[in-house]
Design goal:
By secondary structure, the protein is mainly beta. Helices cover about 5% and strands about 55% of the residues. It contains five helices and 52 strands. It has a 22-stranded antiparallel beta barrel. Strands 10-15-16-13-14 form a five-stranded mixed β-sheet. It has a four-stranded antiparallel β-sheet with strand order 3-2-5-6, with no helix packed on it. The longest helix is centred in the N-terminal third of the chain and has 23 residues, at about 5-25. The radius of gyration is 29 Å and the shape is globular. The protein starts with a helix and ends with a strand.
Amino acid sequence: MKKNAIFRISVIFSLLLAGSYQTYAQVENPKPIINASLTGTVVDAVSKEPLQGVTVQIEAVTHQVKTDSKGVFQFVTGQKLPFSLIVSIVGYQTRRIIVDQSPTVIELTPRLEALDQVVVTARRRKEQLQDVPIPVSIIRGAALEDAGAFNVNRLKELVPTVQLYSSNARNTTLNIRGLGSTYGLTNDGIDPGVGFYLDGVYIARPAATWLDFIDIDQIEVLRGPQGTLFGKNTTAGAFNITSRLPQFTPEANVEVSYGNQGFIQAKTSISGPLAKNLAARASFSGTQRDGNLFNVHTNRKINDINNLGFRGQLLFTPTENIKLVLSGDVSSQKPDGYGWAVAGVVKTQRADYRQFDAIIKDLGYELPYKSAFERKIDLDTQSKADNKLGGVALNADIKIGEGTLTSTSAWRKWTWVPLNDRDYLGLPVYTVSAGNSVHNQWSQEFRYSGKISEKVSGVVGLFGLWQDLGTDPVHTEETGSAFWRFQKSSTSALWETPGLFDNFGIKTVYGIKSTSLAAYTQIDWEVTSKLHILPGLRYNYDKKKANYDRQTYGGLQTSDPALLALKNGVYTNQTFDINADADNFSGQLSAKYRFNPKINAYATYSISYKPIGINVGGLPTANGAVLLDLAEVKPEAVRHKELGVKTNPTRNSILNLSVYQTDIKDYQTQVQTPEPGVNRGYLANAEKVRVKGVELDGNINIGHFLRLNGALAYTDAKYVKFTNAPVPLEEVGGPQAFKDISGGVLPGVSKWSWSLGGEVNQSGKLIGINGSYFLGADLFHRSKFSSSSSPSQYLNIDAYTLLNARLGFRGSNGVSVFVWSRNLTNKDYYEQLLAAPGSYGQYAGVVADPRTYGVTLRYNWKQGN
């Protein structure tokens, strides 16, 4: 779909929805019975200036009025003084007051004046953030929207302990504290260690986490193992995403943004009652942006954004003790491909004629750019990355006794249709790389959370996840007419045999059916008013059944044993079947102690496991034999220790500290090999990995005008023991293909990362509208980190710091307008470095976005405000 079409659809849809609710809003309030009158004025508690458009409503009565330009309101009502008023307006704390005389003056405090006690559901019940004995980072929906975070990719700039890398949606690494998913190219045969939950539904595949953030209420990022609280066993942490629920009070939100690089985004949401106990919510998002890389081979831009998303919900409350939510969502992402420029060339230990520069010189080729930051690429294969995802879920909350029984039933589907140029060159080396995949998942969770006795509360649950993942219909890898020169490993003239590798490739068909079942519980025992003991236990059963069949095709058809040997050195037929299952017990023991109302400390020790992995990206060979013993990857065993303290130094500030260490046996990692037939790498086990660190985060509100927030993370992640790892790129062709990298750093982990943000607010007026002006800025920094599973002196990404900013006006009538910029200083940096298949010496860079800027117009309307 073209940009203009998306823009028209988005804007028209937004305006239609907004218009329909504006009409709905004009329904007259019932006329009151005249019996008493009340006159008053509403003012800003700080500036004492009158506030226009404030809603003043008598409690338990539908009759309401709004203040005029002088902040004055007048009631004529059937009620008699005294009575309770509810006074509200966007940007101020809602007040409930009792009045007994007229006239009266009511002061409203800006929301920034007092630090809201954030409510989280991290322990499957509503609690204040500072009471939860878990390190949790909270991002509110409004903060996401102001930061332009319309998918998970932006979260890494808001939460320093999150690492996200992506060369395209499928190849997404989403980690917390350096752990979770394998770094680099994704292998479908492994489970993520970071749980990703949308309204209680676990989303199993990393690519499926790329759903657009549509109408999000808040995101909780939980750090450390969470297997005794969540459905799927999560060894590194979890993202708990909560969307805004349908409302019985009509409301509508419309937002339109326009920026450089052709950025256009339209979002809208409407909600309201359909019947007495039935409410609905419908949300839509459309995003378009021009490509930020120019392919000189095709004379067109790629790496654009072309997203459409929809989410609908029905809320049914037949009684006050039952809440049913039926939801469905769909996202379609069709960028004009992804591409990568050559970021550098490494001299390997191969012979001189096998070095990259010598190879392309013999082929008469020269890179048409000097630096990847020119944002030029030269790709002779079309790029494609169609990512479709969505699902349906039914969530039921039933209050029983002193707790709530929750049932979450869900089905989700992910479809991936890619086409990549994996040699990063305008030469026919690897001409086709297409890992078409389809994934279906079904999940069911039953959970009861509540009080068991006067001193004991907790959660107990049952969870089931069934996955069907496979090729759709096949995965294809194919070489072209220039491949022979890259693969040439001797001076034999046989390499120059015409057509030897032309259109030579492999077609792979595989399927993985997996079952994950679990029972879990966690208890909160109040030993004293200050001391709580929290034991948790989990039982896991995991089963994976896989079939893998890879067949070669094409190239020169010959019976010559010498030529066949050359072809077999590139691609071989591979077939295997696996039927494996395992069960285990895991759990944790935590203690929480509240020294006083301002200091809450906790300690945790936990044991958790990550299921068996299956290699479905191709297996390496040795002396011509396929290493079938590598088809199965051992499960991870995780031991985690953590100490933390949560404090409220003042009424308007929070400061939290945590110290942790995680030890992993049989760490599942993705490693690279020079073999072209394993160009996505393969899974392996490192004997032992250790991650330890310190995290500090906090925020403070100063008066009604200034909010500051910050987070600092120190992470030391290394291989304690990995004795049989592939050599790094610069050692390819040397005397050994494997080496001991014990003591080396894990990929993708910076020792230091931090974020610092702030926002200044000042009451004022814009074209007669009361509200507040604001100026906000966010800094994000991370230190140097490795971009190779086997540490390399070349594949390291330098430290960088990003500055994002926004300036605008929030009106008390729901209208907001602001200008924004991301990467304001136009910093050039890489998000990831990728060695080319075959390890010929060249490596590509995933170049981050340059400076972007634009303007956003937003309108939030709610009946009564």
